[in-house]
Design brief:
The chain is mainly alpha-helical. It is built from eleven helices and no strands. α5 packs across α6, α8 packs antiparallel against α11 and α10 packs antiparallel against α11. The longest helix has 47 residues. The two termini are 48 Å apart.
């Protein structure tokens, strides 16, 4: 009877702790969701009212005038795609080296350590680095420098994702392919990449979602341009910097454009995140 009493008391204590932990988790979740919903509602209510045809057909206006953000949308799309084009291939190759060739060597561990530092580095530091590396040498701001800065943000995300996804591929698949006399490079291309492709693509999409809203690196590299330009060696308008500059201005028309740009940017990030989530979910269902 004494043992049963002790067990019941111990069970009651554990149950009380479990309920307390669940209650704290619910409160923390509700607290975080409250601010998220508030931000989303503010962006939606103020940004949706500013959406019109001029936003997508006119250039950024001079002070006190009305206009749109056509050149800013073009600049953001171009620099984001260039950032992915510069950073993603290098990231995939580096992640492949870490997962398949470095093993537990000191070189591989050093690369992983440096990549983790780069992954957590403030984006403004990367912007200053590219400013000294590219802008100061060219003598002026440029979209090319902005794309390089964004590529430095893409790189560690893709390296980490590729490394993790390839290491999740069962070792039996490698052994089966190698036992048939298939070269290592062909195993990587035709077996490992095919299995890890959804995860790698998801990492690239998440990197795209992250760089699409980066402002600090572009302030030091691409800056802004009120006019339309396709020359990547010249300053180029982009949505994050336009939002920053217009939100800080005293003009109401610029505030309206800033909210509209923030709304479009939020929708884009949400869409990319949903696509990435859909790829992961579909891949999980296929494997199940």
């Amino acid at each position: 009877m004494f043992l049963l009493s002790n067990n019941a008391q111990l069970y009651g204590i554990r149950r009380a702790k479990n309920l307390a932990a669940q209650a704290l988790a619910v409160v923390a979740t509700a607290f975080g969701l409250f601010w998220l919903v508030w931000i989303m509602w503010t962006t939606l209510s103020k940004g949706l009212a500013a959406i019109n045809l001029d936003l997508f057909t006119r250039m950024t206006p001079p002070p006190g005038d009305t206009g749109g953000m056509l050149n800013a949308f073009y600049g953001s799309i171009l620099m984001s795609l260039l950032g992915i084009a510069f950073g993603a291939p290098v990231g995939v190759l580096a992640g492949t080296y870490l997962a398949e060739y470095s093993g537990r060597s000191w070189i591989g561990e050093t690369v992983r350590f440096v990549n983790d530092i780069l992954l957590s580095a403030p984006s403004i530091v990367l912007g200053l680095f590219v400013y000294a590396l590219v802008v100061a040498q060219m003598g002026h701001f440029s979209a090319l420098a902005g794309a390089i800065a964004l590529a430095f943000i893409v790189l560690p995300v893709v390296v980490r994702t590729t490394d993790e996804m390839l290491r999740l591929v069962p070792a039996q698949m490698r052994e089966a392919a190698l036992s048939l006399g298939v070269p290592q490079w062909k195993v990587t291309l035709q077996v490992l990449y095919r299995s890890a492709l959804p995860g790698i693509v998801t990492g690239i999409l998440l990197a795209l979602a992250r760089i699409s809203g980066e402002t600090a690196p572009l302030l030091f590299t691409a800056l802004n341009n009120q006019y339309w330009t396709t020359d990547i060696t010249q300053p180029m308008a982009n949505v994050p910097v336009v939002i920053f500059q217009y939100a800080m201005s005293p003009y109401e028309s610029w505030h309206t454009l800033a909210w509209a740009g923030a709304f479009i940017l939020t929708l884009f990030v949400l869409a990319v995140s949903l696509v990435a989530r859909a790829i992961v979910t579909r891949n999980r269902m296929v494997h199940d």
